[in-house]
Design goal:
Shape: elongated
Radius of gyration: 14 Å
Distance between the termini: 10 Å
Order of helices and strands: HHHHEEE
CATH superfamily of one domain: lambda repressor-like DNA-binding domains
Oligomer: single chain
Largest sheet: 3 strands, antiparallel
Strand content: 5-15%
Structural class: alpha+beta
Helix content: 40-55%
Strand order of the largest sheet: 1-2-3
């Protein structure tokens, strides 16, 4: 994919994922510590994810969804990939009814 660098953090995606994770954890009535224990993660990892400081690996997302008993797509709500016509495309991140481009370069 032209212009895509594996492992590069996209701030808008990390922030939206973090908000989605926070909402799911709050709805489940769990502390960061309790969720971390259920997922075999460190509490600081949950904090980094919720704070938009990290984009999780797929195995971490599966652990979180299983522990919180939510579908995987709850974490990607508001995050879309839009295929480009002449380039690789990019992400769109929806925030409160608006669409903000979060294109990877």
């Amino acid at each position: 994919m032209a212009g895509h660098r594996s492992g590069r953090r996209n701030p808008a995606i990390a922030e939206r994922f973090g908000r989605n994770l926070f909402r799911a954890r709050r709805d489940a009535g769990l502390s960061q510590e309790a969720l971390a224990a259920l997922c075999c993660l460190h509490r600081t990892e949950i904090g980094y994810l919720e704070g938009g400081k990290r984009v999780p690996r797929l195995d971490t997302v599966v652990k979180l969804a299983t522990a919180l008993e939510v579908p995987l797509d709850d974490f990607t709500e508001g995050i879309e990939w839009v295929r480009g016509e002449k380039d690789a495309g990019g992400f769109l991140v929806r925030q409160q009814g608006t669409t903000l481009p979060a294109k990877l370069h």
